[in-house]
Amino acid sequence: xxxxxxxxxxxxxxxxxxxxxxxxxxxxxxxxxxxxxxxxxxxxxxxxxxxxxxxxxxxxxxxxxxxxxxxxxxxxxxxxxxxxxxxxxxxxxxxxxxxxxxxxxxxxxxxxxxxxxxxxxxxxxxxxxxxxxxxxxxxxxxxxxxxxxxxxxxxxxxxxxxxxxxxxxxxxxxxxxxxxxxxxxxxxxxxxxxxxxxxxxxxxxxxxxxxxxxxxxxxxxxxxxxxxxxxxxxxxxxxxxxxxxxxxxxxxxxxxxxxxxxxxxxxxxxxxxxxxxxxxxxxxxxxxxxxxxxxxxxxxxxxx
Length: 304
Ligand SMILES: [Mn+2]
What we know:
- Its EC number is 3.5.3.1.
- One of its GO terms (molecular function) is manganese ion binding.
- It is a single chain.
- The chain has helices at residues 24-30, 33-39, 73-92, 107-115, 147-151, 183-191, 199-205, 207-219, 252-264, 286-298, and strands at 5-10, 44-49, 96-101, 121-126, 173-178, 195-198, 224-230, 269-275.
- The longest helix is centred in the first third of the chain and has 20 residues, at 73-92.
- The chain is of the alpha/beta class and 304 residues long.
- It has one domain: Arginase, Chain A, CATH 3.40.800.10.
- It is built from ten helices and eight strands.
- Strands 2-1-3-8-7-4-5-6 form an eight-stranded parallel beta sheet, with helices on both faces.
- It binds manganese (II) ion (MN).
């Protein structure tokens, strides 16, 4: 890829219960992001961090939604609007936005910014979870479990001016690696035109075949794709430093081959984000270092 990468940090933890993911952007930078990108032949600049209010500063249930529950809705919406503006500005400058989380609620901002005007955006969401709850179905009220539903304009999000949603069409969205899905999410996923590949699909068909199909779906009829990688997609033995670990995730090698497949689509790749790195729960920053390695693979780094 010839395009210069602009790194945007979003130290966001308003969308998750466990504090610590706000330090994710620092941990990923410290983990060698710039060096890993350089080893893939990528020139990068750092655009700094987007300001995020501290949870202590505000009331999580101050409201703003007609129904259901979404903690820190107002604050999350404001941060995501700033993320969307920064991602859009990066693209306008001819650079590639690489967004570092922070919890997965920031995906709302990244996708809205990457979708831009009236263009069709494909999305691949590598995650253990569906992130498909709405304020009506959520068991926790945490927006990081609702971000994909939000960009599709689902539930109470649809009745609110929630960052120009729906930003993407269901048929252009693919989930990969699911293994922990709430009842409300399962029902909604069945009804939707979103494609969902579970860990069972990866077990039976193999990661390369599943990821190849995901890329075909996301690129079919779209103007570009966004890749959102939640580190909890990997097995916790490889990525222990995440907010909500679930056993039975993809292996180190499966994650790399998936990113190498993503790199094959560099002409369509528009934006990428790495989220949910939690250095407090990590072991010597290895999850952040793994995130850097996976970014390098996604940008074309090869063994030979
Ligand atoms: Mn997630």
